């Protein structure tokens, strides 16, 4: 007779996500996971696979919970440009916020730590960025169609510029004590939308 799990795998995955997000992949040992999740090593391996597989599942979970928020923000009916501006300003504010500053964005952290040497992680990062760019592009196309964006502006190029800017904002926000640095950069980027 098979034993039933004595822990909630969903809660354990969320807990692993939080630990990886705050420490990174390399700085998190399996012993750290055992202690933080409160479950045995064998249960971690049986439920999630290796540490690497658990990390990738945590990265997937992060995307599942954060992508719908962006979709909701950028696809609301009505004027599209205010929504784009609000997202950029929210990212800048989060990057400079004391509580969020040290953790940053899990996707951005993964890109910086593993992107160049871990193809599975890099694919997930790229997929996340593709989705975000598509959301920005769609919103900017709507803005252009509604007369909010000057006709000479390229919605695809603007979406890519904003994506790259926002990833940079997340990196700089982690290392800088000066919130004006990310706020000013965001405002200058938004001026390109006028």
From TrEMBL:
Limits of the HTH tetR-type domain: 6-66
DNA-binding stretch(es), residue numbering of this chain: 29-48
UniProt xrefs under PROSITE patterns: HTH_TETR_2 (PS50977)
Keyword terms: DNA-binding, Transcription, Transcription regulation
Keyword Manganese: no
Keyword flag Phosphoprotein: no
UniProt-recorded name of the protein: TetR family transcriptional regulator
